[in-house]
What does this fold into?
Amino acid sequence: MKIKRGDIYYIELYLEPGKISDHNKRSNGTLSFTGVELMDAIVSAGMPDIYLNKANKRNRKEEIYFKIKLFETYVALLPNGELLFDPARKVYLDSTEIGAINYWIGMILITVLGKKKYGYEYMVHLSMISNFSSHPRIKKHRFFSVNGKTTYKSPDLIAINNSNRYYGVFESKGYSAYDSNAMERGYIQAKSIDKINGKPPKNSLVVMTVTGKRIEITEKDPEGGMEQIEVNLSFLQIYHYLPIVELIVELGPEEQEDWTFGSLVYEEEKYSIGIPTVLYKELLPIAEGKEENLLDEFLEKISSKETYLLDIVPDEARQHILHVK
It folds into this structure.
């Protein structure tokens, strides 16, 4: 398929009851989104860790191109706008390759789901939450895999709404066929966090993206568990937005009113990717690496509450700091 700005895509949604062993799913409507909204998710989904060492930096534009190419190569479009894992491509892949592609498709689509259905601005991996949390020892649950190995897992993602300060917990599963055992493991992972910054998560979801025929998403929303974590939102905003600033620098920044955009051109489509100029200018010296210890100094200021990153962003821009058009 080719992602087109004006096209509308559909995915069937299903919902399971809250009980862990009850897998009687029911239809829960559809998730519809435009090509621009899909591109927004591709830019956001799975953005790599910020690079603390300049020698480790990679080309952000190439990372985005990789995700676009992967999605367009392995996802096909039905005449009615529904998506499926392209069967003509799938027959040439082994199970490991299919698993990796399922992961990326799932990450992109769960980002669309979190933004479009639940109103979250962005999601961050729990590993970074642990690094920037005052209670970093988040319990990992032990599971036995099909090959007999023992694995220890916690939820994948914490979702954040900037303006209203609410949070969600997401455990993402990507499979070719529905797997009830994986759903139950995800249930345990998703319900492990009781409170984030003193508030219960608005959603604690295990979300399974199934790519066997058409792509569909099944959700299950358990009650929260016992773990409580405290996170500094400014740390997480740096983690999420600094790579986007690096991307805009590579694309060539252009100010438009109170926003700074970079133009991403992919084949025949052009997208403008931007954030508020005040935030861009705050993070730009770090992105450019002009001073070796600037990031450490900035993090220290935030930690000491001298700076709260979101406070510099105008109120009207807080709900959608990343703007793709």
About this structure: The first strand starts at residue 8 and ends at 15. The chain has nine helices and 17 strands.
